[in-house]
Structures are given as structure tokens and as C-alpha cells.
Amino acid sequence: MPEQPAGSRPTLEAVAARAGVSRATASRVVNGGAGVRQPLADKVREAVEELGYVPNHAARSLVTRQSGAVAVVIAEPEFRIFSDPFFEQQVRGISRELTANDAQLVLLWVEGPGDYDRIARYLGGGHVDGALAFSLHNDDGLPALIRGTKVPAVFGGRPGGGSAAVPYVDCDNRGGARAAVRHLVGLGRERIAHIAGPRDQTSATDRADGYRDVLFDADPALTAQGDFTMDSGGRAMAELLARRPDLDAVFAANDLMAAGALRVLRERGRRVPEDVAFVGFDDMASVAESADPALTTVRQDIEGMGRLMVRLLMRVLSSEVAGAGDAPASVIMPTELVRRASA
Predict the structure, then answer these.
(1) Which candidate, 5, 44, 127, 171, has a CA 20 to 30 Å from the CA of 331?
(2) Which sign does the torsion angle of CA 10, 16, 22, 27 carry?
(3) Are 163 and 143 in contact (CB under 8 A)?
(4) Burial class (CB in 10 A: 0-12, 13-18, 19+), 342
(5) Are strands 69-74 and 130-134 parallel, antiparallel or unpaired?
(6) Phi, psi of 266 (to 5 degrees)
């Protein structure tokens, strides 16, 4: 058996020689290929461990035309990404699943219109094998831009603007909102307000539709607009109290807005849940469990949605390698009402 020169990087040939197999067999095992009997595959893996062999991804990419990297594109500015725990949870799920698939994460975000050209050049330049994009807006050119680069993609959240050809992962926003409002109705509340999210995001409009499904004749004065931030929830709550001081319940379209609204209710001397029952949406533990009082909310599996986005993308990439044209179907994940002290 040839000795590996001292100080040199172990080669695939050395792995094959140590395992007593051909280079082609060693390559199939190292690169996750099929068709190698288990005893031989075990010998190759033992040789990889013994020699400390690290695959040359640069060389492999020249053959496979794959970079081993995936772009995660968030259609929000930097300050939103690093201040909203929703993004932290979703990126964590994506990162863990990419790691399990031996792929690298490249994070991109949109600060302004000038970033679209930069993102298009990067995605179209062969730097990544696929893209995951979320927090999309209805008038956002990002979905069309991604489709135009021909990079395989999966979207987080149901996109607006006719992007149905791209698979997406979402939660049952409308059904979750219905469950929240029905819960408040079941508590005997009669003047239930809604703090809505941005009108240009399908998650927010679906949750508003769920509110109206239950309260189809609700007074328009019982709805105020927010933008999924804590400050906007506080402003919306103050607006609602000015318009309808007799309100006795609130459904907020996300937990951050709920936290801001609860602060305003405390400042105005309104007791929760005695005077005003409150339900949020997301079940982000860092927000819902630390709220005062702890927030009843609709749970969506944010990290699980990130993981599922990666799994769908890997299926898209596998089908392209295999020459199969069928894209995986989009997935709507269930939601669950989590009862705590606020309602």
C-alpha cells in the first residue's frame, strides 16, 4: 500500500488504496452515491476517518456543476432581520437542515431597490445551487427576479403576484386566525378588535380574512393597521382605544404587535384579560412567554417551516439532476391555539 507523503493532503486515491477498492467506488461512497455494497462502503468510510480525508468541493463542483451553497433571500432590511425573532427562528431551521445536507447558507437581504440587481447578478452567477426566499411582498419584484435567474427556488409564505409555479411553504394563516377569534367569541367577548399586518403580505391579509370569516359584520373602526413591528402594535392599540374605548378583546396578527399593544393597555389602566382579552399569532417563545400577562397565541412551527423549505429545495435539485421536471407540491402547515393568561 503506497504511503501518503508527510504533510500532504490525503487524496481520494489514498482512500481507495487504504480501503482496497477502486477510485470510482471510493468516489461514489464519499459523494453519497448508490450502488456500493455495505461492507465496501464501511471500509471506505473507515479509510476516510483514518486518513482525515476532506473532499475537494471545488474540484467536485467542476464535475457536478454544483456549488454546495444555497442563498437565503429575505425581502426585508437588515434592522428588521436582526430585531424580529421570527427571522431568527426561520433561519435557524434553514441552517440546521442545510447543515444536515452538507450545504452552506449564504444570507442576502434587501435594503433598497438597488439591491435587486446585486441579488440577480449573484444568483445568476453560479455561486449557489438554489434559493430560499421569504417575507415577500405583493408588489415585490423579487419572485420574478429569482425566476428570471433560472435558479431553483422555494418560497417561504404564499407569494402574491402570480408566483404559483414556485413551490412554497406556509402555515394555515386564515384557519389560525379563525381559531383565535372563535376563542375570543367563546369567552363571551362582543367587541373584538383586530390589529392587522401589512396589506402587501399574504400572511397578514389571510389573517385579516380569518378575522372577518368569524366577524363578517364587525365595525370597521375595530380594525387598525400595523406592520408586524412592536411599535406599530402600540400605535394601533392607541388608535383602537381612541375610536372604540368599549372594546373588550383584541386579535393581533403577530406576537410582536401584540407585545406593543399590551404595553399600551397597561399604560391606559386596562386589565388583561379582565377588561380586554388578547390573542396573538406566531407563538414566539421569547415574546409570548415573556409578555405581561403571558400571551395566548396561534402557534406556527416557524423553525419547522424553515427545515421544510430546505427539504423541498433538495427535492427540486434532485429532480433536476435526475432529469425529472415535476416540482414538489407546496405545503400548508397546520396551526394550533396555545392558551395562556391573556385570554
Answers:
(1) 127
(2) negative
(3) yes
(4) buried
(5) parallel
(6) -65, -45
pLDDT of 80 reads 87
Contact (CB, 8 A) for 93 and 306? yes
Instruction: Return phi, psi of residue 204, to 5°.
Output: -70, -45
Per-residue pLDDT, 59: 43
Question: 128 to each of 87, 117, 170, how far by Cα in Å?
Answer: 21, 16, 24
Lookup: cell for 296: 395566548
Tell me the three cell numbers of residue 60.
467536485
Residue 136, all three cell numbers: 415577500
Q: What is the mean pLDDT of each run of 10 residues along the chain (343 residues)?
A: 56 88 82 75 88 63 61 89 91 92 89 85 90 86 85 89 76 98 98 96 96 96 97 98 97 98 97 98 94 96 96 84 64 97 97
Give yes or no for a cis peptide into 273 (omega within 30° of 0). yes
The 3-state secondary structure of the chain, one letter per residue: CCCCCCCCCCCHHHHHHHHCCCHHHHHHHHCCCCCCCHHHHHHHHHHHHHHCCCCCHHHHHHHHCCCCEEEEEECCCHHHHCCCHHHHHHHHHHHHHHHHCCCEEEEEECCCCCHHHHHHHHHHCCCCCEEEEECCCCCCCHHHHHHHCCCCEEEECCCCCCCCCCCEEEECHHHHHHHHHHHHHHCCCCCEEEEECCCCCHHHHHHHHHHHHHCCCCCHHHEEECCCCHHHHHHHHHHHHHHCCCCCEEEECCHHHHHHHHHHHHHCCCCCCCCCEEEEEECCHHHHCCCCCCCEEEECCHHHHHHHHHHHHHHHHHHHHHCCCCCCCCEEECCEEECCCCC
What does R_g of the chain's alpha carbons equal in angstroms? 25
